[in-house]
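Take a specimen:
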Amino acid sequence: MHDVGFIKEKLKARLTPRHFEHSLGTAQTAADMAHAYGLDEEKAYLAGLLHDYAKSMSGGELLAAAAGYGIEANPVEIEAPYLLHSELGACMVKEELGIVDQEILDAIAYHTIGSCSMTDFDKIIYIADMIEPGRAYPGLDRLRHMALEGLDEVFREAYAHSLAHLIKAGKLIHPVTVEVWNRLVAQEYGRLL
């Protein structure tokens, strides 16, 4: 597939040590979840490894790089540029590492704010990012326990947890995050948005 050793060295040079360790934990968690759900473990490992490729960039760097890739930042992203690291990271992984697998690129692009068209693979990367072994926050044990019991259920729970955290912290909420949440609620009641 891809030279994982080379990718790890590239990541180590790009990320802070904390983000690098988080990426390693996310990669292994994603591979374990992919195994449990019958998806490609190697691909999940790679997507988990690369999900935060642009994470260590400053807000100004994220905005400038996003503009360079033709990513038009919305008002929430301008105020909270860290939200751009997902979509931007997918673009950078494609250009800098030559990874063209759309499933990997989408999972990287969707791991922060989500998407209404998320696949099971995308959900695994989103969840793995939240539950990898280096994380510690209230409610994490429940998510870890649920992780291998039903992908849609744990994704909904993880998404609700993220949304509650954003509200409690008084942070801006990306419009796509609201759209995804509304879709999840509608699906729970058998309706489509």
Summary: The radius of gyration is 16 Å. The chain is about 65% helix and 0% strand.
